[in-house]
Structures are given as structure tokens and as C-alpha cells.
Amino acid sequence: MIVYRVAVALALPFLLALTLWQRARGRLAEGAILERLGRVPAPQGRTLWLHGASLGEVASARWLLERLLARDAGLSVLVTCNTATARAMVQAWALPRVTAALAPLEGQAARTLRGWRPCGLIVVENELWPLRIAAADAAGCPVLVIGARMSERSARRWAQAAPRLIAGTLARVAWLTAQDEASAARLVGLGLPADRLGPTQSLKALAPAPPPLPPPFAAPAPRARTLLAASTHDGEEAGILSAFAGQLGHGPFAHLILAPRHAHRGDAVAALVAAQRLTVARRSRGEVPVPATAVHLADTVGEMAHWYAMAGATVIGGSFARPGGHSPYEPAAARSAIVHGPGTGSFGPAFAALAAAGAAVAVPGLGSLGAALAGFDAGRQQALATAASAALARPGGAEALVDAIIARLRQPSG
Predict the structure, then answer these.
(1) Residues spanned by the domain of 271
(2) What count of Cα atoms within 13 Å lies in the side-chain half-sphere of residue 256?
(3) Which residues pair with 297 in a beta bridge?
(4) Digit-coded pLDDT (tens) for 280-300
(5) Which residues contact 40 (CB under 8 A, 6 or more apart)?
């Protein structure tokens, strides 16, 4: 731990300089430096700290956050994340008694803990920062890790490079649920006490189906004629646009909602739309698509639920790019038929369940996407959506998880 502390201290000036540079370029909001140093104004009363790395992790925990707030009307929650996009998404939710902030840099969490004095720190998935977890443990704040993942490669690296560091970190975790049995076994092998291991589960799999949302504007095309490309990455949009344009006028889809993973790429994606000579309306500019609009560029954050509700079929972003596929749970819950590429990312078991049930269309590459879209009439969309909803359903687990978390939070004294 001493060597790690020294390395973190040496890296701190460079990380702060990077934060300053990002703030100067307008990529971070005012106050980012203070948040990175752990200075976040705390409310009065009982508080909880929930942390997720970025968009996917934090979004997967929204339902859990809402359930915890509903259970305790006096609870306030600090949600931290590593990216400005995720922070903006949480702010856009406008949930009462929720504060969004950038996560404190490693070694700077003590200020957050002193200010907020949380009854617990809930960590979503893989954010096992040794000094942050040690500081929480020292402050009497139980650390709960929900939906943890540990790949074979990561486990091997920890075991070879810092076995005592990871073992000491996992020994301070009060309770942990893993996404899959293999991750659970690796975490126990690295030092997690076996009696602190909870059931295998995924936050996204447990999330209840969201209630219908009123659309932000009148749909420009019927749902069965609308295709969503959700959370796309650089290198994917051009191929998706080409496949969509190739079937326009004679295929099943008349309208494409293109939602890049990172909203700041809006200008670059708009240029790709222009290159295809397609009409476009940009959400970030307040432009509303009409029936004659081919593409709605949804270059905003926090509105994906609207787009799933409008689209009869969804192309899973990241599945044709290096990050690997993003979550199939949200389109399945919204009953939007799923199309994806070869990359499954951290959702391998979910995509395997879809494949076993014949509940999604797997495409080997973007060059094959156009042919795959050709057969997506309304009947097939409905059949695939129904099968996906059944294949990924996990009834009964959500309330059990909330109960388990509440039981492990530090209770108020007196």
C-alpha cells in the first residue's frame, strides 16, 4: 500500500493539470477541480454515496437509486462518476435529494467522506480504487460493490502485479455481488472473504421495466418504421448510416434515430449524415424531426428511454467497435427488437441468452447490416422483442437486492 500511495501522490499534479486543461476547453463544468479534490457541499441529514465509472454503470443504477430514495424520505445521495457526460446525465434526471459530481481523484476521497459522512458507499461494477475503499473503511462507511466484474485477464494482472494490494482492498469490502460466477470465483481467489459474497446478478438484468414516458415530440414515423442506433462509437456511424440509406424508400425503415455514446461528437456525426445526403434534425439544437426527416441526431444525454420507446428495432452501439456491445437490457425492456455486431463487451452472458432463445439478430460486420435490416418488418420486430424480453427477464430480484443493501448500510445512531 505504501508504494501505491507514493505512486498516487506523484501522479496527482499531472491529473490536476489534465483536469484544468479539460476545464479550459469547456469539457468540464465549473467546480470540477474542487469535485476532483473531494469538495462537494453536503446536505444535512442521512446521506449515501453511490459511484459508477461512466454512463453505462451509472444509468444501470438509476432504478436502485430511485428505490433507495423512496424507501427513506430523509436520505440524500451523492452520485459520483469519472466523466462529465455521466455527471450531466445524472443532473438531467433531476431527481430530488440527489447531487451529481465528478468522483474525487484517488487519494482525495477523505474530504468527501468527512463532508458527507455517508451511511454507505455503493460501488457499481469495477471501480475498486484501493485508497478510496480504505478511506471509507477507516471512516466506518461500509463499502458495497454491486454487479462486480473481474475478467480472467484483469485477475491475472492483479495477482502478478499487486496481490497484496488487491487482497487488502477486497478485505475491506463489506458485501459484493458479481455479474457472473466466474467473476465471483476470481474475486474470492484475489482475497474477497467468501462470506461477503452475495448472489450473482446484474443491475441491468434486475431493472424493472420503465413506465411509459410521454414523447418529447410527435413521432415522425410509426414505431415499426423507426430504427434506433443506440450509444454508437466512432467508426460505427458511417456503416450504420450507409445500411439505413441503402434500404430507404423500399425497406422497412423510414426514420433513423442516431444516438452517439458521447454527445460532444455531434458535429462529427452530423458530417457523416451530410455525406449520405440525408435530411437531419439535431436534438442538441432543439430541431424537431418531421415525417420528411430521415435522421434524428440525438446528440444529448439522459434521453435514451425516449428513443427506445420510439423505435421498433435497435442496433446496439459498441458491438461493431472496440468497446464491445453495450447493454441489451434496455431495448429488451422497451420491447425494441435487437440487432448487434460481434462485440458483446461485458454483456457476454446476456447476448448468449438472446442467441440461445433466437431473440436477437447477430451481424458479423457493418457490411452485412443492410441485408439484416431488410427483413425487419413489423411482425419480425414484435416476435424478436417478445423473445428478448422473456430471455432477459429476472423477476423478483430487485426488491431482494434493495433489502440486502439497506440491511448493510450503517444505521443512524440513537
Answers:
(1) 223-391
(2) 30
(3) 258, 282
(4) 999 999 999 999 999 999 999
(5) 34, 78, 99, 101, 112, 115, 116
- Measured between alpha carbons, how far is 42 from 283 in angstroms, rounded to an integer? 34
| Rounded Cα–Cα distance for residues 181 and 144 (Å) | 18
With 0.70 as the threshold, say if the pTM is over it: yes
Q: Give the E-state strand segments of 165-214 in sequence order.
A: 175-178
For residues 180 and 234, membership in a common domain is answered with: no
Residue 366 lies in a domain: yes
Q: 94 and 167: one domain?
A: yes
Q: Are strands 121-124 and 76-81 parallel, antiparallel or unpaired?
A: unpaired
Domain for residue 147, yes or no? yes
List the grid coordinates of 29: 463544468
Q: Which helix (H) or strand (E) holds 228?
A: strand 226-232
DSSP for 48-89? EEEE-SSHHHHHHTHHHHHHHHHH-TT-EEEEEESSHHHHHH
Instruction: Indicate if 69 and 195 belong to the same structural domain.
Output: yes
The closest alpha carbon to 6, from 124, 93, 107, 81, belongs to 107
57 is catalytic: yes
73: in domain: yes
Q: How many domains, the chain?
A: 2
In a domain, 194, yes or no: yes
Letter for the amino acid at 227? L
pLDDT, residue 395, reads: 62
Above 80 in pLDDT, residue 28?
no
List for the chain the helix, strand, coil content (%; round to 5).
Answer: 45, 15, 40
Here the CATH number for the domain that contains residue 296 is 3.40.50.2000
* Torsion angle in degrees (nearest 10) through CA of 366, 282, 381, 240: -10
Q: Which of 35, 57, 106, 127 is catalytic?
A: 57
Are 150 and 260 members of one domain?
Answer: no
**DSSP letters for 9-24:** HHHHHHHHHHHHHHHH
Q: Are residues 296 and 358 in the same domain?
A: yes
| Residue range 93-128, pLDDT digits in tens | 999 999 999 999 999 999 999 999 999 999 999 899
In total, the chain counts a number of residues equal to 414
Residue 106 and residue 183 in one domain: yes
- For 97, the grid coordinates are 435529494
50 and 172, same domain (yes or no): yes
